[in-house]
């Protein structure tokens, strides 16, 4: 080009297309994260079991799974202990008695650990 005039990049240039596609993907992923967080927020406050079920189904449809580890062995790397309940049954010691707050994973990536009540020795 003469005279120092610069022309805008050609949108059909593969490098420009790659940059635009990357920006759109980043934006879509950020918007998805925001919508997932909004759904989790709404789910936490839902009073209707039908609404909770529908939100969980919708989230599962995009790869976000609810975690309710009732009956599973307590694992501090996956669960957060919110409380304990005493038991005389030694087989139950260290088992999740109840999920207080549902946890979530997004395609295997933790979003929020479930908060649980764990059986302990009386």
UniProtKB/TrEMBL annotation:
GO molecular function: adenyl-nucleotide exchange factor activity; protein homodimerization activity; protein-folding chaperone binding
Any Pfam family the entry gives: GrpE
Gene Ontology BP term (one): protein folding
Superkingdom assignment: Bacteria
Chaperone as UniProt keyword: yes
Keyword check for ATP-binding: no
Keywords attached to this entry: Chaperone
Gene3D superfamilies named among the record's database cross-references: Head domain of nucleotide exchange factor GrpE (2.30.22.10)
InterPro entries listed in its UniProt record: GrpE (IPR000740), GrpE_head (IPR009012)
Protein name as catalogued: Nucleotide exchange factor GrpE
Species of the source: Saccharothrix espanaensis (strain ATCC 51144 / DSM 44229 / JCM 9112 / NBRC 15066 / NRRL 15764)
Lineage: Bacteria, Bacillati, Actinomycetota, Actinomycetes, Pseudonocardiales
């Amino acid at each position: 080009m003469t005279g120092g005039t610069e022309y805008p990049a050609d949108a059909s240039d593969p490098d420009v297309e790659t940059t635009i596609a990357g920006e759109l993907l980043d934006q879509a992923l950020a918007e998805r994260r925001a919508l997932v967080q909004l759904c989790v927020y709404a789910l936490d406050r839902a009073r209707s079991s039908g609404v909770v079920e529908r939100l969980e189904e919708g989230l599962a449809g995009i790869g976000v799974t609810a975690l309710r580890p009732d009956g599973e062995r307590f694992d501090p790397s996956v669960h957060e202990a919110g409380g304990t309940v005493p038991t005389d049954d030694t087989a139950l010691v260290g088992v999740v008695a109840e999920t207080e707050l549902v946890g979530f994973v997004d395609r295997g990536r933790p979003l929020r650990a479930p908060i649980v009540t764990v059986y302990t020795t009386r």
